[in-house]
Design brief:
Number of strands: 13
Shape: globular
Radius of gyration: 24 Å
Structural class: alpha/beta
Strand content: 5-15%
Length: 449
Amino acid sequence: MHRSTPSSRAGKDVQNGGQAVRACAARALVPVITAKGSLNELDDHQVVMRDRALFKAMCYGVCRTLPRLEALAERLLQTPFKARDADVQALLLLGIYQLLYLRIPAHAAVGETAGAARQLGKEWATRVLNGCLRRLTRESAALQAEVDQDPAVALLHPRWLLKALRQAWPDDWRSIAEANNQPGPMTLRINRRHGDREAYLARLLESGSEARLCTHSPDGLTLDKPCDVQALPGFTEGDVSVQDEAAQLAAELLGPALAPRPGGRVLDACCAPGGKTAHLLELFDIELLALDSDAVRLARVEETLERLGLSATLVHADATARDWWDGTLFDAILLDAPCSGTGVIRRHPDIKRLRRPSDITKLAELQARLLDNLWPLLRPGGALLYATCSVLREENDDQIRAFLERTSDADITTPEGVSWGRSAGPGRQLLPQHESHDGFFYARLKKRG
């Protein structure tokens, strides 16, 4: 049987509308490169099924390598494009990405990318794009060596973020940046109500998928190659979900507070998209209230619980207020706080463009308000688990230290003798690992009784 290679697929793409998919990718990237939108809107773009994989690979790839692509584009252009031609700028970035990072023949990458300008109604740009990309094919090594003299370009991160990583983790900042630049693996969480992960691993192998057991999460499996969720055995029936290994640890950390109290009352604040919500319900006999301020994301939580056959009380409300609360104290609270997302950049590479230094201060202030508002809702003896997918100390250990200083009845109970992460003051920090877990922070607090 003939198996299609990336190069042969690229050839078919040229014959079947290669210009169209590149024009669509350019339109999708404009909100990101102009810092006005994110990759969350990719599914809103109409792309034929055969081109979906290429479309997403190009969009995510451009965002992942954006600092380097823009540095090269600056050297290739004699005059920068005007603001109204951000779509043409996006096409140039797409062309550079294809030439340097995808196994697409140079003539296809150049010709189809330049030709895509016509699909954008800007035929004048075909000549400019063609000239820039052909120059890159001739002078690639020299141009790359020139731009890579800047560490921010070579490590594919904005300067402010590299500086922040270096200040937070002076011995690890480079490895964090390198891990951020690699796509994250696809990790699964087994629904323990439907079986164990060893049995599911056997089902995966029977279906032709290779996977390995996660090291730290007892419910986790990591696939050797990502796949469509519908191809996973029993996905529709709720046997398995997609969730990073680091995120799965939240349920393990709340276990000591929940397992001894069947029917315990639990608040999952800022719950969307619902992975941790579902994991708690799979493992424990609890009464769970799932709260989120985003109605669209809360609907995703409802869909997830419906697929898994689980139930919770879903509330669309702001966790910095209490107008939703009925006055009954909670036995446990999970606060998966809004954060910079600096631990999951590899899954959301548009963070490199969209996040600003000023955002960190604003997010830290929001996290403090959430902690202060929710703590009185916890019963004496109850547990609050604070979590972020950040690697920045302002949002993590510094945040919890400040909370402890102003909260007299809070004790830290974050476990120390665990195999994952590293001690970070009152919490534990996981840094993103290549082919392993994302970056995450946890701190567990107990209210004195």
